[in-house]
Amino acid sequence: MLCHCQSLQPFAACCAPYLNRELSGQLAPTPLALMRSRYSAFVLGNGDYLLATWHPDTQGSLTSEELTEHGLNCQWLGLNIIFTRIEADGIHGVVEFKVRYREQGRVVLLHEQSYFERVAGRWLYRDGLINPPKIGANQPCPCGVTQHHIPKKYKHCCAKR
Ligand SMILES: [Zn+2]
Ligand SMILES: [Zn+2]
Q1: According to DSSP H, which parts of 20-136 are helical?
Q2: Is 161's pLDDT higher than 90?
Q3: Which of 17, 80, 101, 126 fits 24 for a cystine, CB–CB 3.0-4.6 Å?
Q4: In angstroms, what CA-CA distances link 54 with 12, 57, 155?
Q5: Protein residues with C-beta less than 5 angstroms from the ion ligand 2
Q6: Do 146 and 152 meet the contact criterion of CB atoms below 8 Å apart?
Q7: Domain spanning 11-130, CATH class
Q8: How far is residue 56 CA from its own chain's centroid?
Q9: What's the CA-to-centroid distance between 67 and ligand 2, angstroms?
Q10: What was the pLDDT predicted at 23?
Q11: Which residues contact 114 (CB under 8 A, 6 or more apart)?
Q12: 104: CA distance to ligand 1 center in Å?
């Protein structure tokens, strides 16, 4: 079975180990892996995982039940990753993505830049910016990749994903 997060990897080799952490003992090693596993958790209605990977500072009064309900009430249509980056401090990260889902007959396109923080060794979702500014084709790629010490242009880097 292919993973729900559309990585084209088998579920068992992609998000499953993180969703079944009690069994596997594995934590999502990067903000991107966490982002993908959270998308899979929405598809599966795994509110416990969504809450456990939500930074306590920003989860407010959200409950596992609400997250489960939101996950199961939507039909998840796709996840596209725009770029991801881990900051130099090693404890902050960014994933920009587009998610499409159908809710009450309406298709929603969510374009978000999500911010992650590593707390006690675990990456957690902190918050996000909806509809972030468009990345220019000739801009240095926000993923931070360089070639011969020169930042790669977006059009030659993550735009090609
Ligand atoms: Zn996956
Ligand atoms: Zn890039």
Answers
A1: 21-24, 31-44, 47-52, 64-73
A2: no
A3: 17
A4: 23, 8, 32
A5: 141, 143, 145, 157-158
A6: yes
A7: alpha beta
A8: 17
A9: 31
A10: 83
A11: 31, 35, 94, 95, 96, 97, 125, 126, 127, 128
A12: 25
Q: Compute the distance from residue 156 Cα to the ligand 2 centre, in Å.
A: 8
Output the pTM of the full model: 0.95
pLDDT in tens, 81-117: 999 999 999 999 999 999 999 999 999 999 999 999 9
The residues spanned by each domain of the chain are 11-130, 136-161
Question: Which among 152, 34, 49, 161 has a CA at the least distance from the CA of 86?
Answer: 34
Counted residue by residue, the chain has a size of 161
In angstroms, the CA 24 to CA 151 distance is 37
Ligand number nearest to the C-alpha of 17: 1
